[in-house]
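Run log // design_07
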């Protein structure tokens, strides 16, 4: 038997000042966006801010629904909006942060599995990795690629794509 030991590189920053001005601004944009969330069921408000290669910043917040699975996470709201409005422009950064009733959560937010898959698809679509900033009150996690958020991911390998397009 062979064993695969995976290492995930995550920069752990204890202070926002360790980030560039643009990265700090993106986290601030995500933080403001939390207040636009529609989260009457969880009271957990998430904000995501996406910076595109053309300099445009697109934000999104979680949108819940009485039929729970119909809601959508902040990351996917922001990513789908960015990719649909600017289909030819790759993402360069995404910042994500969350607030509960006490304010910004202590630990850096950890995106759900479905959002990780969507982030990865965008990297593959534009053949360009992007920086991910997961912010919390006590630390910020900085990752260089969504591949690091989703190791051993499904990227359509083995699918007969030609057959699907016929
Ligand atoms: N949520 C997000 O928007 N992003 C995450 O990374 C984690 C969870 C939302 C989904 C739901 O509206 C609420 O937070 C509680 O799970």
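design_07 sequence
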């Amino acid at each position: 038997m062979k064993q695969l030991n995976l290492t995930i590189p995550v920069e752990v920053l204890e202070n926002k000042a360790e980030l560039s001005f643009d990265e700090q601004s993106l986290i601030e944009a995500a933080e403001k966006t939390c207040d636009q969330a529609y989260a009457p069921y969880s009271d957990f408000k998430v904000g995501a801010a996406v910076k595109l290669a053309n300099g445009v910043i697109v934000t999104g917040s979680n949108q819940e629904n009485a039929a729970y699975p119909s809601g959508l996470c902040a990351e996917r709201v922001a990513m789908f909006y960015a990719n649909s409005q600017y289909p030819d422009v790759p993402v360069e950064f995404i910042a994500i942060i969350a607030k509960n009733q006490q304010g910004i959560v202590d630990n850096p937010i950890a995106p759900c599995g479905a959002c990780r898959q969507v982030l990865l698809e965008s990297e593959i679509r534009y053949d360009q990795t992007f920086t991910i900033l997961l912010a919390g009150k006590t630390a910020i996690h900085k990752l260089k690629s969504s591949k690091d958020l989703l190791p051993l991911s499904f990227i359509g390998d083995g699918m007969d794509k030609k057959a699907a397009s016929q």
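The chain has a mean pLDDT of 96.
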